[in-house]
Amino acid sequence: MTRLRGRGWTLVLIAAALAVRVGLFFGGVRGSDAYAYAHQAYNIATGQYDVQAETMFYGFRYTVLLPTALAYKVVGVSDWSSALFPIVCSLVTLWLIIRLGSRLLDERTALLAGLLYVFFPLDLPEATLVGPDSFIPMLSAGSVLAFWVAGDEGLATPKRMAFFAVSGVCVGLAVQARESCVLLLVSLSCLALYRRRWAAGLLAVLLGCLAPLAVEAIYYWAQTGDPMYRATVIQRLNELYVGPAPEGPTSWAYYPRAMFGLDLGGLARFGFFVYAALGGVAMAAWSKDLGRLAPLLLWAIPPLLYLEFGSMTLLRYVPIVKSYHYMSLISPPLVLLSAYGLSSLLGSVAASVNRPVWRRAAVAAVIVGLALTSLYGAVRVRQNLQDDARPYVLVAAAVQGHPERPIYVPHFRWAMFLNYHLRFQTGFNYYSRPNGVGSGRLRYLWEAPDPTVLPAAYVVLHDRYLFYDTIGRPVGRSALLPDYVFNPPPTWRLVVRDRAEPAYNSFALYETDGTADVARTPCCTG
Known about the structure:
This protein is mainly α and 526 residues long. The chain contains 19 helices and five strands.
C-alpha cells in the first residue's frame, strides 16, 4: 500500500466518520453536564462569566468552554454550533490514531484502526456533545504522537525538545478538560522508561504541561487573589465524594462489567472492542510479538489501573468514582489494540481459508458485525438522550408565542435546561442556585404556592422532579408540593401533555390567564 493510497484511504475514513456522526447527531447539548458547559460558554461569549461565583467544576474546564464560546460568538447558539468543535476533535482523533498506528504497528493495521474508530461506540455520543470527552481522546492521542515523534533518530535537539513540549501542552490542556488526565504523565513516563532514554524530554513535557496551567493560575490570581482557586473549589467539591455516601458508583466491578458488556449501558458504549483488544494481546503473546504492543499497553494501563483502583484523596483511601465516559482517556489505544486483534484474526482466517471469496466474506462479516452492534448501541444511547431532553424541547417550542410570560418550573435543572432550549433569552442566571432565579422569566413552583395569585404564566408539572428523583426513583415529596400539582384549577389551559416512556418522564404544561379562581375540586392523591 503506497503512501499516497494510504492518504487517500485516510480521507475516505474521515469522510465516513463525518457522515456517521452527522447522521447520528446526538444534539450538541443533551444529557446533564452539557447544559452547564453550554451556559458557561455562553457567559464567556457574552462577557457575563464570573469565576468568583463558580462553585462547581464546569466553569473551570476552559479546554471545553473557550472553543464553545468562540462558536457561540461567531455563529450563535444552536445545537450545531455546540457540536462544531466536538465533531472537529473526533475527526482529528481519527487522523491521529491512523498516524500512531502507522508508527507503532503498520499502515494496514492503522487504517483498520481508523475504520474501527468510524463506529467506535464510546466516541459516537461525545463526537456531537459538548463536554470534556469530545476533547480528551484527541489530546491523549496528540500527546503520545508528539512524544513518539520526538524520539525519531536524527531529529535535531531543538526540534526534539519542541515535540516533547507539544506533548506536554496536550497533557496540560487535557488536565484543564478533566483533572484525571494528569495520569497521561504516568503513561509518558512509562514510555520513556521503555525507550530507556528521554529523561530531558520528560522535563520538556512537564514544562509544556505547566504552560496552560500557569496561564490559568495567573488568571485566578488576578481575579481572586488565589492562583490555586480552581483546586480550592474542587477540594470542596470532593467532600461530596469522600463522605459516607459518595455520589456515583465506586465498585471495582463497574468497569469490568461495562467493558465486557455485562450490563446494557456498558455494552452500548464499548460494544465488543475489549474482546478484540484482549484477543490481540493474547495472539501477540502467543506469537512472541508483544513488544509491538508495549507502547499501547504502557499508554492505556496506568490510567486504567488508577481509574479502577485509585482513591479520591491522597490522605486516605476512598474508592474513586467511576463513569463510562472516563475511559475516553484511553479510547485511542483501545481502538489500536482492537485493530491489531482483528488484523491478527483476519490474517489467521486468510491463512486457513483457501478460496479468496470466502476469505473476503469472513473478513467482511467480522467487521460488519462489529460495526452493526456498535451502531445499534449508539442509537440506543441517542434515543435515551432524546427521551431525556424531550420535555424541555417540547416546552421551549410551546412557550415561544408569549415570550414575556413567566414559566414556573419544578427544579433547578429545569431552569438551566430550558434556558438553553430558549437560547439563553430568559434572564436566568447560571450562578443562581435553587433558592431563587432572580427576576428573569423562569420561576420555581414553590415561589407560587397559591394558584389564585399567579399572573398570566406557564406552569410545568413534570413527574420526574415532583414524584421521583433525577434518575427515576420514587420519593415521598407529595406533602411538600402545592395543591395545584395534583389538581390544576379548571381555568388553566392544558397546552401540552406528554405521557412518556419511562413513565416518570411524563409532564404537563399549563397556561394560566392570571385570573383568580377559587373554585377547586377535591385534591387527588397523584
